[in-house]
């Protein structure tokens, strides 16, 4: 496998960018080796600057649910960008985006567009604090909500991968306002709210955790958190940056039938352009400036090109049967990977949601942070490189969810499973 061009770029990048990258997990720091540099992407495939092709299960970390460079998305972007890149005054696409989100996610009677998932979550907790007059927030160990100060407490994703769940630079008095809980443990949540319930502005959760590998909520767990927060007058925030529009047209709140007070989005609503959003009940969202006193703003928020890419992607996502087919493909992939591991004598289990999966080097079902972090990370790292050499790109960390897109064909999945046979044998 040729890697000269990527190596040359990474050498230059290391001198100029911290760790050679603009976002930590891209650096292959935990799996070892050097990242490849992308040349282009189309459908289910990524090509690097050395001409290698990979079947891609990262999908730019979530946005590319319809595959890379989908013709409908590219065409919407091209048409829109010819009219100008940013206006700094309202445009029609922002209204259409808000209407689309409200139609797909009924709990979002009003929305505010921002530019990343990080902005969405930190704006949502500011609103929660402003609306309740309370200061504490609750998050879950291993959940990631972007790099806002209040969230870098027992954080997942790159923070977990690199062993930096609590970052220097976050003032201790602020970090102390973030309380943490173990995911899927209802009794621990009851105990925390019994002690601090009156001070808690909001509980924020990934309704399917995708930043400590992929962990689904136990039956009834989200409903329990809904009742608990309501009882104590705290807001429930679903961080659907990853799950939104992915696991169902209306996200995890539709899949599980649990309605949060506020929701945060990103990734898919930008179709690959930088976008985030938060939304919720009218009475709450009306407290955001200029309708209300909770301040939040953005020079490029509601950017027309980003709205066009997101709207075109949401149009694809809304097609009848879209998520059913993604779930079928997710099962096809996970069943195949489990069978290949069994044949190679490697203990592996998977967690599955529509278009989202987790692969664990263990013989047990994984339902908690403790179980996810107890898996064999070294075996995953060997498997990752075995797959990469065979032309399959998985997230370069044992603590990230995998993503299936509508562009992955059954043949792509069969080729992935075939590659896994060799890679599992090496990883054993
Ligand atoms: N919340 C969740 C659940 C996420 O997965 C992520 C990013 N992976 C974020 C928030 C932050 O989004 P962004 O990287 O766009 O700031």
TrEMBL record:
Q: Pathway involvement?
A: Porphyrin-containing compound metabolism; protoporphyrin-IX biosynthesis; 5-aminolevulinate from L-glutamyl-tRNA(Glu): step 2/2
Instruction: Please state the Enzyme Commission number of this protein.
Output: 5.4.3.8
Names of required cofactors: pyridoxal 5'-phosphate
Keywords attached to this entry: Cytoplasm, Isomerase, Porphyrin biosynthesis, Pyridoxal phosphate
What's the short name of a Pfam family annotated to this entry? Answer: Aminotran_3
Q: Which family does it belong to?
A: Belongs to the class-III pyridoxal-phosphate-dependent aminotransferase family. HemL subfamily.
Q: How does it assemble?
A: Homodimer.
Q: What is this protein called?
A: Glutamate-1-semialdehyde 2,1-aminomutase
